Amino acid sequence: MSEKKSSKKKAPGKKSGFQRGRQGGSSKGPKLGNVSKNVAFWLLIILLPITLFNLLSPQEETVRKINYSQFMQYVQQGRVQSVTIMEKRVLGKLKGGGIRGEEVSEAAANFETFFPFEDSELVQKLDEAGVEVTGKPPAVNWMTHLMGWIPWILIIFIWLFFMRQLQGGGGRAFSFGKSKAKLFSADKPKVTFKDVAGCDEAKQELEEVIDFLKSPRKFQKLGGRLPKGALLLGAPGTGKTLLARAVAGEAEVPFFSMSGSDFVEMFVGVGASRVRDLFEQGKNNAPCIIFIDEIDAVGRHRGAGLGGGHDEREQTLNQLLVEMDGFESNEGVILIAATNRPDVLDPALLRPGRFDRQIVVDRPDVRGREGILKVHMKDIPISRDVDIPALAKGTPGLCGAELESIVNEAALLAARRNRDKVMMKDFEDAKDKVMMGQERKSMLISDEEKHQIAVHEAGHTLVQRLTPGTDPVNKVTIIARGMALGVTQYLPERDRHLYSKKWCQNSLLALLGGRCAEQLILNEMTTGAGNDLERVTDLARKMVCTWGMSEALGPLTFGKKEEQIFLGREIAQRQDYSEETARLIDSEVRKLVNEAYNDATKLLRENRDKLERLAAALLEREVLDAEQINLVIAGKKLPPVDNGKPKTKTRKRSRKSSPASAGKKVEKAAAGKENKSSEQDELPRSAQSVETGSAEPAVDKADDKQGQDDKA
């Protein structure tokens, strides 16, 4: 029995038509159900007047239409039995017997005619002929009345239709002020704090809020009170919303979530009404947690902007301030909000008593990035050669969202390559794609332009390599990626939060290396250095005006930004110094740039042979990693390009040619000793892949990511 049953089982990949129909119907059921309801509604509206007209209209017998002359002939002959007069309409009935011997059927005995003119003697003639006369008022024409009402009915239904569309349908045409908060469902897959990495301090703060909700007596016995709000601050992609989802998964209390833009509506007063309704729901479900994402949409500074502020948004903010800490307290309701623009929020919203805790969710460090990669790799089959610590070290400054994108792209690349597991090469290629964009190998570049790009990138690489105290060069490529025609990537040895003056000066040298190489080798200037010059000028001006690194001007800052918070960006910079100081600032900026330019030119002129070798190697290989760069600078021969042969064969050949392999080992060791001053912990190398980066420091934040691309 068991064998027969098992033989009749269907393959797991095949499904019957009934099953597929049920599954397809279930996936599209709600949408088709809404469409059918709307169609039935409008059909009912159309058919209802027609049905009423048919029911209310009088039912008349079958009649024969005759002209007035024939009617008068019937009267004179005495053939008319009775008539009913309705204004100019006459309905009559003939007596038994026909005209000229023809029999008239009962159906044909009824006739109808109309008066062509007013005949005052008609009633007298009918009396003389013995005709029974009856008078009736004219029949009511319901269709005429209905046609008069149809335009008004259509206007009413069109207005109701637009109201349903504005409010999202569902019969909520008059529910403008209702909150759009969504209650977290326990049936959905939960995100817990185990799924969050790289922000231990933020997790600890939020875990304490959840512990307070679970066991309030533990904190209240010492006089502590429940915090009313927690504000998550951080750059985009650092995991603020993910932390809120983890709170929803961990908290055993109702969790309401909505966006700051849900308060904004085209009707005046709707935002404040929705705030009141939101906190009313919170009171009814207390203790509970309310999460508002992107609160800067409604919490911007009041009275700011070119027009003096936005009244509707400010009224919504005023209601939010009152609900959070007003005359009536909302006990048991905790508000968690997230924003990446804390500088534009109103000060009254940030004070203790409303947002008691401001939790900073910063970019992760090396250990945090390693933890984030492990969290996203737990459901992906990875190969043994995947080095997670090396990946974490090779992605300085990236946020959690970018790391998640790298893991996802690696899985997609491995699937595209028909692999069972994700290998290290897939992660390296995915990292290149996320950080720089897809390779544009199909882009047609002439040999002359390719030579110019190679010289430019070789200048960046050599200056960075020969300047002590700078970030080591990891890779350089002349393959177009994204918007750049060539990229030189610098891999920091550690996460840097502070930048010294010497480091900034060395960065100026590296940024100007491409332009110096162009003038030295090509004896001309190209537009490829446009981005480099822009960043050099910006860095030098910040050194003078912001960081006080000029000896002539001293430890002072110059120029204050005038920002319109309503616009969310700076639109002007106020000059708070004299014209003489402005000339001195320009002189100091020019001095820093010129000194760096002269030093870079001198360094390249002294090592011109290395520059030419590096440019030739780039033209030949298109991509060079750190090891190959060191070999080219040392004058060593590059190893042959790997053609994808099996590693076992390569090992057998190397054993047979042991003297050559020993010579290569000696050359590598000598190169390693020569370049010991700029050694770095290299990432696992992947063929034909490039990393992007820059030596420019974070000009506004000391913990900014590793920079931008050096574009040729």
Overview of this structure, please?
The protein is an alpha/beta fold and about 700 residues long. It contains 23 helices and 16 strands. The strands form four sheets. A six-stranded mixed sheet has the order 6-8-9-10-7-11. The longest helix is centred in the first third of the chain and has 40 residues, at about 15-55.
Concise synopsis of the structure shown:
The chain has 712 residues and is of the alpha/beta class.
Give structural attributes.
alpha/beta, 16 strands, 712 residues
What is the topological layout?
Elements: H1 2-8, H2 17-56, E1 64-65, H3 68-77, E2 80-86, E3 89-94, E4 110-114, H4 122-128, E5 132-135, H5 142-166, E6 182-183, H6 200-214, H7 217-220, E7 229-233, H8 240-250, E8 255-259, H9 270-284, E9 288-293, H10 311-325, E10 333-339, H11 347-350, E11 357-360, H12 366-377, H13 388-393, H14 400-416, H15 424-436, H16 447-466, E12 473-477, E13 487-490, H17 501-522, H18 530-545, E14 560-564, E15 569-574, H19 579-606, H20 608-621, E16 623-625, H21 626-633, H22 647-656, H23 658-674
Parallel strand pairs: 1-4, 2-5, 7-10, 7-11, 8-9, 9-10
Antiparallel strand pairs: 2-3, 3-4, 6-8, 12-13, 12-16, 14-15
